[in-house]
Specification:
nine-stranded mixed beta sheet; eight-stranded parallel barrel; globular; binds ligand LLP; 2 domains; Lyase, Ornithine Decarboxylase, Chain A, domain 1; alpha/beta
Length: 430
Amino acid sequence: MHDFHYQGREMWCEETPVAEIAAAVGTPVYIYSHRTLRNHFRVFDDAFGAVPHITCFAAKANSNIAILRIFIREGGGVDIVSGGELYRALRAGVDPRKVVYSGVGKRVEEIEYALETGILMFNVESFQELEAIDACAGRLKKKAGVALRVNPDVDPETHPYISTGLKENKFGINVEESRQAYLQARRCRNLDLKGISCHIGSQLTKISPFIDALDRLKDLLRALRTAGIDIRYLDLGGGLGITYKDETPPHPSEYADAIIEAARDISCTFIFEPGRVIVGNAGILVATVLYTKENEEKRFIVVDAGMNDLVRPSLYQSYHHIQQVRKSRRREIVADVVGPICESGDYLARERRLPGFARGDLMAVMSAGAYGFTMSSNYNSRPRAAEVLVMGDRYHVIRKREELRELIRGEKIPDVLKGKAKTILRRAYV
Ligand code: LLP
């Protein structure tokens, strides 16, 4: 469910015409519906209402501070993977005691920053990281809350790039070793062993892998409690999928019911790290058609958004629905939608049956709220898109379009190169 719909021929977001935003803010622009974001968060969070839990939104999916703020106001926490995400979460007003820190490569400065801030816990991914956190905490005279991220070796049946809970993946500590890791961690004086965590992958469309992972974690939890280690938090990560095309993922309430049922014999506080399921369908990317062209093989629709704005199609061959912002009566065509980047992999759709787009039309790339803007870059020196949050019949620019001067922020020409540029033209050979 989302709040992008047509009134007559016009696409609206909530009570605001999308074309009005594009006219005022320009394109490419990410547009998010506040109502959808809040509803999605509530649906997810309420689904676990029967058990103690914290919903820590995965900032990597969408880290705009206005978006984080929406979930924080609803009582949510934040799942972070870097000092940068911690900074954003704090600027958005998060309660640090609702922050969990995952990721295989935490730097010492990042660990210190998180300790100073007083986050709930680090999801630790290796023996060496345990030692590093213990040492940092000792230096700062703090106690670090930790959970070990266990790799439960279950197949999430998703795209290989976003599957994280298999033995071959770099994430976590495998189940067999994790008991030993807890026993080792118990000897570290500056660690408070609070929890067990896992995250098996993203865009999962079945419940069973989550339950398999939970079962493995439960066995470990029991063994640890028997050994006198007081595990209070079970962090099941994120990963619930959404409908991009014709996928039929479980509704958050089905997912929650299955987890609550499978965990009814254990008592602890649950942590969830949903990203995509909250924001994915709450945002679109709006682009303008620059040109249309065709050769013997194909038709192309060239738009002003490229792989630097939305990399998912290029990187994962992922499908995003494409719609007209203003429906036309033109004949349907089969075409590739491509961006301005100098790479053949720069596309938003391939061999897609589409309404007949013409130069100057606005195009909406649907389901772009998750891993859209956050994965965008300045490749080809393209300023990053603006972001807009719609609230009813009003909208707010929550990130202004980047300006050219921001592209070279921090860059410097060393003095030795500052002399006059050569003005003599080399003789041209003709
Ligand atoms: N927790 C951890 C530790 C994660 O690594 C992730 C995602 C999440 C939570 C949130 O997962 P979600 O609920 O959004 O599935 N760029 C890819 C997705 C990468 C996901 C990485 N980790 C994409 O565009 O599909």
